[in-house]
Design brief:
single chain, Rossmann fold, 2 domains
Length: about 400
Amino acid sequence: MQSLINKQVILGITGGIAAYKSAELCRLLIKAGANVRVVMTSAACEFITPLTMQALSGNRVHTELLDEEAEAAMGHIELARWADLIIVAPVSANFMARVANGEANDLLATICLAATAPIALAPAMNQAMWSNQNTQDNLTSLKLKDMQIFGPADGEQACGDIGLGRMLEPIEIIEQAAKLFKSGALAGLRVCITAGPTREAIDPVRYISNHSSGKMGYALAQAAVDAGAKVSLISGPVDLVAPPHVDLVNVESAEQMLNAATDSPCEIFIAVAAVADYRPQLISNKKIKKIKDSMQLKLVKNPDILATIAGQKSKPFCVGFAAETENLESNALKKLKNKKIDLIVANHATETFNNDEASVKAYWHNGDRALKPNKKEKIARELILIIKELI
């Protein structure tokens, strides 16, 4: 089920006795790594309660077409845009007919009409209703609209009849849904990324920091998510919005960043943050007044976050960044060896900080690769592919 990791799935439920299976389907979708929002028709609420589905999904269940809590009360548009996949299970004969004819008379049907994401329908009805020519005509129409049809299965039905019409079991629906997506290069792997600068306090209003914008780290977080990874992003203070589906941890100091990194188990650790090498030995609890013509500030070395993670007994695949102003290659190779890491990405500090583009060269123990100058988003995607090759 790795291809469902980080996918945004709307689970639609229509009226039918098979709605009890939707609870298990919701649980399995979440177990497979999907983010699930549930949309129920009024008839579905007669068979299984919204409270049950809210407890299982962890999100508010949507039932009304006009949503006062949604932007401009247009919840159907927001949900349609949000979804990577819509699964309706069970699908009643009534709902099949409405969607086949393009009706938009309730929230779920309207979302299906507004969505550009794939739509998968899992029919569940009496065998006579399934075999009825009207239903089969609707089925043909739905297929022509490129909707995916999961099932139905053959077997004994709630009414006692035997034949086609049973809803597929939840695990079968999950397996078919996963086939709609390609597995990413890092599917199923946990990736921890540090990004941005750190701030080392001098007093309550002053600190030591640097010009790092965090753009490369955030671009790598997005690229890792796109590759199917579960991403923890440990960020110093930046003016950026975190990519969707990442676990964001905001920190300020190097010590805070180290603590967050050691608390984030992962298979791949990417240290992009520009961590301050030193911090003030003493931090004044009051603003330091401008009394003397000069003052001395004693600094002590900060912990080396990357070296600490790379030194763990069961260390992850470790990637470092070397932002240098001179001797780029020699300094990068020295860090690769001394920190005992697997890959280092070197760039000129003055060309990278606060810029949207970068020019980098990646080095590992038996090879290297220069990446053409490009947008950081493109560079990030290329680096993710290099990491995949090396692991």
